Amino acid sequence: MTISNAPLHAVSGADADLTAARRVLTTASQALTVLAEQLDGDFTRAVDLMLAAKGRIIVSGMGKSGHVARKIAATLSSTGTPAYFVHPAEASHGDMGAIARQDLLLLLSWGGETMEMSDLLTYAKRHRIPIVAIGANPDSTLIRAADVPLVLPRAPEACPMGLAPTTSTTMMLSLGDALAVALMERKGFSPDQYRDLHPGGSLGRALIRVCDLMHSGEELPLAGPDTPVPALLLTMASGRLGCVGIVDGAGTLLGIVTDGDIRRHAGKNIDQRKASEVMTSSPKVARPDQLAAEALALMTEKKITQLFVLEAGSPKPLGVIHIHDCVAAGIA
Fold it and tell me: What is the set of domains in the chain, with CATH numbers?
């Protein structure tokens, strides 16, 4: 058979491009539907085995499967399951040392006969390292060697020659994501844990909570309702938050005095007035476990610059969050 170097299609332009794109996406969508429908107890067994691993999940694959394996390892690691990619060819030249007996191997190969995988399989069997395999050939060496095989449906590639890995890699990637999410849910992985693993970028900023930014302890500007305004001004200036919380003898938040309140009452014998006379009663508040982005949205909506932070069900202030704290944290 001769393979021509001529273009596969004489037709060009937007219509041909859209037709190709829709074929790729439709083929992948249909394959994923079949994959979802055929999942069975082997998937749960794979999750159980991965959850029981005392070490890391070692993910490996060759070629395009290797690229997918790298992404799966990254997704597992970022969702609370420590994982590491090992190149199968490099494993045969020393990188096998990265694999410990407490680990688990997650191996990817569409045909299941990838030559570079043979040493990994031998090493795993010798050291009794469990194997979860993802492939499409149930009779292949890889699938037969696996403790838990996850067999993909035999779906056509979207490439017009049926050669370039497209649908197959989409299914592998999606199944890897499914394993990561199932493990995440089994472990009860929380947003706070997720934030700890994603301290940088928009993900980390989106998960910052009020308690991470609020001023508390000695920074908390508080005064009683009978405090004279001149004393309030001193407290406000020392705190540099532009506000003072007014609390009763039990520590209950009664109101807030801001520099705006002071300006509104200026010229009305303000130096002879008390906090209770100039404060804003029932001020807007935030919770310590609330996302800082939510607190920022409330401040923006109400055109205020600070919120006292109260524990849920408690009238006592724990801290203050200022709009500038949110801006400095990159949330705005």
Answer: 16-189 (3.40.50.10490), 210-328 (3.10.580.10)
Three-class DSSP labels, the chain: CCCCCCCCCCCCCHHHHHHHHHHHHHHHHHHHHHHHHHCCHHHHHHHHHHHHCCCCEEEEECCHHHHHHHHHHHHHHHCCCCEEECCHHHHCCCHHHHCCCCCEEEEECCCCCCHHHHHHHHHHHHCCCCEEEEECCCCCHHHHHCCEEEECCCCCCCCCCCCCCCHHHHHHHHHHHHHHHHHHHHHCCCHHHHHHHCCCHHHHHHCCEHHHHCEEHHHCCEECCCCEHHHHHHHHHHHCCCEEEEECCCCCEEEEEEHHHHHHCCCCCHHHCEHHHHCEECCCEECCCCEHHHHHHHHHHHCCCEEEEECCCCCCEEEEEEHHHHHHCCCC
How many CB atoms lie under 10 A from the CB of residue 317? 24
Question: Per-residue pLDDT tens for 257-285?
Answer: 998 888 888 876 888 889 999 999 989 99
pTM of the model: 0.66
pLDDT digits (tens, 9 = 90+) for 12-52: 577 888 999 999 999 999 999 999 999 999 999 999 999 99
- From 148, 159, 163, select the one nearest 23 (Cα to Cα): 159
Task: Label residues 195-206 b or e (16+ Cβ within 10 Å = b).
Answer: beeeeeeeebbe
What does the buried/exposed string (b/e) look like for 156-192 if buried means 16 or more CB atoms within 10 Å of the residue's CB?
ebbeeeeeebbbbbbbbbbbbebbbebbbeeeebeee
Q: How many CB atoms lie within 10 A of CB 266?
A: 9
Contact in structure between 145 and 37 (CB atoms under 8 Å): no
